[in-house]
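User: Show me a protein chain along with its predicted structure.
Assistant: Here is one chain, sequence first, then structure tokens.
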Amino acid sequence: MRKITLLDLFTHPSTVKYLHRSGTAHAVAVAYYAFKLAAEKGVNPDLAAKAALLHDIGHYEWYTDGKWDYKLYRQNDIHAIKGAERAHRLLIEMGEDRVAAKEIAVAILLHTDSYLPQENLKLTPLQEIVKQADELDEEPDGNHHRRVISEEKAIRMVKELDKKIDDYMSTVENTL
């Protein structure tokens, strides 16, 4: 049984603050992609979905003259560094397993190439899944961060994903 659900994370005041900044619709979509990829590859879908949901909570709003400035973002952003730290602190404070919290935070740290040279980096399966899930939902010029979803729909989708994770994990436990 999972100690912390996606809904617990999604409704936490810190998550609410930062998800609205980086795009709630994108975060929920990436969590779904991560669950699917994790289930296909035999990786813990709980960790993958949590990392995916929180992957952009380090975003800063890069604007020039009141408009989103994608070029400025790509040149100066370190959201994965800030997000990994925020996610780790949040998960530990909420009582997540410390090893899992670290794995989730490192997957968030390595989910993007916006600040790290990727040529020599060897990602773990969890890290690769979070990166791929994010890429599956990307739109040109960072427009995936501007998509809108109602709070009610987002909560409904997060609850559905929690159920999928619970069902998957109980099925896996029963086969062991």
